[in-house]
Amino acid sequence: MMRRTLALLLCVGLPHAVGAQSLSEQLNDYPTEARADYVFGCMAVNGNTRDMLRRCSCSIDEIAAILPYEDYVAAETVLALRQGSGERMSMFKAGPVSEGIVAHLRRAQAEAEIVCFN
């Protein structure tokens, strides 16, 4: 009876523990370098003040809570490719797939702006 109870507790509790770890990892899957890069860019645009450091840090934290890092990288890549010129870059400027990728980032940024800059 004791073994069954222990086995049941392990079967019920283990997935929750693994799920909690996965959720934690999902919420903090942005590398420090990516967060710092975002904050530096944000501060360069908005001002190099202590208040902007706080707001820009809040902003990337909000974006990270909404958008997985993989999606963030994809959107930043599309935005960088849009800066280029030529035929090869045209698919990143008007393609429906690239529009969707960037739209997710824009929504996350808008949410972060509401939370952190108002």
Number of helices: 6
Question: Fraction of residues in helices?
Answer: over 70%
Taking all residues together, what is the mean pLDDT? 79
* Count of domains: 2
Kindly name the structural category.
mainly alpha
Low-confidence stretches: 1-21
User: What's the end-to-end separation, in Å?
Assistant: 58 Å
Based on CA atoms alone, the radius of gyration comes out at 20 Å
Largest sheet: none
State the order of secondary-structure elements, H for helix, E for strand.
HHHHHH
Could you tell me the strand content as a percent range? under 5%
Shape: globular
**Quantity of strands, as a count:** 0
Characterise this structure.
The model is unreliable at 1-21 (pLDDT under 50). 86% of the residues lie in helices and 0% in strands. It has helices at 2-27, 32-46, 50-66, 69-82, 87-94, 96-117. Helix 3 packs across helix 6. With 118 residues, the chain is mainly alpha-helical. It contains six helices and no strands. The longest helix has 26 residues, at 2-27. It folds into two domains: 1-30; 31-117, no CATH class. The protein is globular and about 45 Å long.
Write the layout of secondary structure elements.
Blueprint: H1 2-27, H2 32-46, H3 50-66, H4 69-82, H5 87-94, H6 96-117
Helix pairs in contact: 2-3, 3-6, 4-5, 4-6, 5-6
What brief labels describe this structure?
118 residues; mainly alpha; 2 domains; 0% strand; globular; disordered N terminus
